Amino acid sequence: MYGKDKGGILQHPDGTVLKQLQPPPRGPREQEFYNKVYDSDCCDSILLELREYLPKYFGVWSPPTAPNDTYLKLEDVTRKFNKPCIMDVKIGQKSYDPYASAEKIQQQVSKYPLMEEIGFLVLGMRVYHISSDSYETQNQHYGRSLTKETVKDGISKFFHNGYCLRKDAIAASIQKIEKILEWFEGQKQLNFYASSLLFVYEGSCQATTVRLSDVTLAEKRGVPKGLLSGGDILEYNNNIHVINSTENGKIEASVSKGLSKFYALHKKAYSKRHHSQLSLKVENLEKDNVWKSSTCITQEHLNGNVIPQLEKVFCHMPAEIKESANVEVRMIDFAHVFPSNTKDEGYIYGLKNLITVLQNILDN
User: Fold this and answer.
1) Residue 252 parent element (H or E)
2) Which residues form a coiled coil (predicted)?
């Protein structure tokens, strides 16, 4: 929803989403922005790169029954995810544009007085918890309640799945924000106010696997090669799977063996933590090509002693697995984008501060 009584984002049967055009001047300004960036004749390298960080734009759409209602037709960034975890973060030191009235400025500042100091505001989140197979949601009041002292914990809540902190998703998010920051550092033609970053990561982790044969240590002291034989794979999703692949490529269910071996490796590697760093390479594997059969740890077993072991494994996954985390970070909401001849220092400040907070969550 936006406002008090206006419908929010709608889904179109073709897999796009429909965002109703806001009243003038906001709606036409956002439509003009998308038209400019996605103009088929566009040859501006700054705008062409910007497309990478936005949802794809497919023009405007009106329902046959209400031809005067106009919607922006946009890519559904969440479509490829099974259990999408979603967070909307408003970026910048000011959530009002240069043409805002004194009354509007006061209204916006009073909503979140810390915006100028923190540089971003959590507008809402939806987090999938694998333990309960349900979503936890937080609205805009949650974000406004966060202070300088609590904002780190407030953001980390988005990356916690009920068992552990998804450090892979945090690290991948940082990488994507850094790319957007690079774009802002290199452009002086647009300033963004009251615009957001949309974060999406896979809550069920169905496509994410940890391949033990790819475990390496950053330094050459390390894990004996014999410990890594067998090509064990651990997959964690809605129903955590632990499987062991045999030499002929068939998959053989081996919950207790796979888990105990993985846990033993984990303990051994981390006993050397003072002089070496465990790096787990995570690969996205096509399920059809990999899984022939598997045994699930069902929900009723999650209350047993398996969970402490899984927590120890997942919660200490190092940031090096970030390259394969299934994460999207896209810029959205462009009703207050204006031409400029200077860098967008307010947005840059917000991005840098958000990166710092996320990095602190990883480091601690």
Assistant:
1) strand 251-253
2) none
The one-letter amino acid code at 176 reads: K
* Tally of CB atoms within 10 A around 39: 11
Q: What is the pLDDT of residues 270-286, one digit of tens each?
A: 444 444 333 333 334 33
* Ranges of the chain with pLDDT below 70: 1-7, 205-324
Which residue is listed with tokens 């202070």?
A: 147
- For residue 114, the one-letter residue type is L
Fill in the amino acid letter for 70: T
Pull the structure tokens for residue 288.
């059809």
3-class DSSP state of 288:
helix
State CA 14 to chain mean position distance: 24
In terms of Cα–Cα distance, which of 180, 292, 187, 188 is closest to 233?
Answer: 292
- Can you read off the two tokens belonging to residue 193? 């106010």
Could you write out the DSSP letters of every residue in 212-225? GGG-EESSSS---G
d(CA 281, CA 357): 24
226 burial class (0-12, 13-18, 19+ CB within 10 angstroms)?
exposed
User: What's the pLDDT tens digit per position in 103-137?
Assistant: 999 999 999 999 999 999 999 999 999 999 999 99
pLDDT, position 8? 78
- Name the phi and psi angles at 312, rounded to 5: -65, -40
d(CA 355, CA 135): 25
Answer for the pair 198, 330: CB distance below 8 angstroms, yes or no: yes
Q: Quote the CA–CA distance of 116 and 266 in Å, as a whole number.
A: 43
pLDDT (tens digit per residue) in 181-227:
999 999 999 999 999 999 999 999 654 433 333 333 333 334 333 33
Name the H helices within 51-88.
none
